[in-house]
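WARN no homologs supplied; continuing
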Amino acid sequence: MKNLYYTIGALFLLTISFSSCKLDYPVTPTEANTIPIKGYHPPDTTGTNPDNPATPGEYYFTCSLDGAKINWQTTDGFNGWVTGSAGATSNDQGEITGSLIATISDSKNFQPQIGIEIGTFHVLPDGDRADAFNSLVKPEQWNFGVENNGRDTKYITISYVDATGKMYTSALATQTGTVTIVSATPIPKELGFDDSIKIKLTFSCLLYPVDKTGPPLTLVAGEATVRLENLL
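OK structure emitted
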């Protein structure tokens, strides 16, 4: 199963005109015939001015990226930093497999953006979506994903889109850093949202340019709390 980093940069661009409805996640031609993409949930949580985040948020992303400090905090649901969820799954006669991604991005044009992709989810034809969703995401150390993950591989891939739209991913080379889910708190279904998990994680990695031009970015002491919605 290919992970989502090929298209993460375009994920939110369509929400500018259609922020009140669920949208299809853009796919590349190589993915279009193999991975039906489930709907993108529009931004649900935002924060202070992305250039000057002063108010701590329930959801956030902090790190040192090539020596520059990043501190994205979400707060009120309308402006600043926003969270979102998307899914890339296949459905073979009711058997669902694939990955889900939680993001935090700048609400003005949805870049810069961080993406936390988690896989592989697996729902049998007679299985329960909620059970499959919650049973996979547990606090522990995880392996980083690679460019083509096995059908039942358990992994996390970190994606990053800079302010110019250039896309980076942790999946293009073997990582020596670590990624750990510190806590995973189920959130019941509520108006406008399916059941979700509030995930806190820490990570350090190299982020390689998807277009394979330029050096990788060094991400150190990454910490994020994100909301992953059940889009299985």
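The chain is about 5% helix and 45% strand.
OK
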